[in-house]
Amino acid sequence: GKAVIIALFFIGMLIPSFVTEIARFQVIQKLHLYNTLGAPIVIYIASDLMQLYIYRQFISGISVALDEAALLDGCSYFGLFTRIIFPLLAPATATVCIIKAINIINDMYIPYLYMPKNKLRTLTTFLMDYANAQQGSWQTLAAGIIIIMIPTILIYIFFQKYILAGVAAGAVKE
């Protein structure tokens, strides 16, 4: 049962998102999220199976004896999660947040497709529109690319140890 469900999630990671794009677009339209900030938020939260994998690896490394001891001491399931399990997941949460932030900052496809309004444009969609309008102005385009890369570089520089520690801790199983 449980192994089959997990296998289905991992098989879902093999399917390119472009294959399911028409169905996803229809769902976003039916939810009246097209051309709103809600569309990419829903897509980024619901369609990334990598975060499930990272959390699963961390949770599988937590001893069941810890859960049992907390329950024997009278801790509720909610208390078990909020006071014991979730604090242990801090490296996984930091890793997921940092990786998602970098992916969101660098994403051009989802904002361009789901938020075509000019006031909703992101830096990457603005740069693409600028590149189309300024055919041949490579110096200006290169400067824009470097400016857009700055947040990603800064995030990586400041959070490098958390990214590496989080990914490594999720990969090691005792």
TrEMBL record:
One Pfam family hit: BPD_transp_1
Keyword presence, Metal-binding: no
Compartment(s): Cell membrane
Transmembrane segments: 6-24, 31-47, 84-105, 138-159
Domain called ABC transmembrane type-1: residue spans: 1-159
Keywords of this entry: Cell membrane, Membrane, Transmembrane, Transmembrane helix, Transport
GO terms, biological process: transmembrane transport
GO cellular component: plasma membrane
InterPro entries linked to this entry: MetI-like, MetI-like_sf
Chief place of localization: membrane
Protein name (record): Sugar ABC transporter permease
Organism: Lachnoclostridium phytofermentans
Membrane-related topology note: Multi-pass membrane protein
Protein family: Belongs to the binding-protein-dependent transport system permease family.
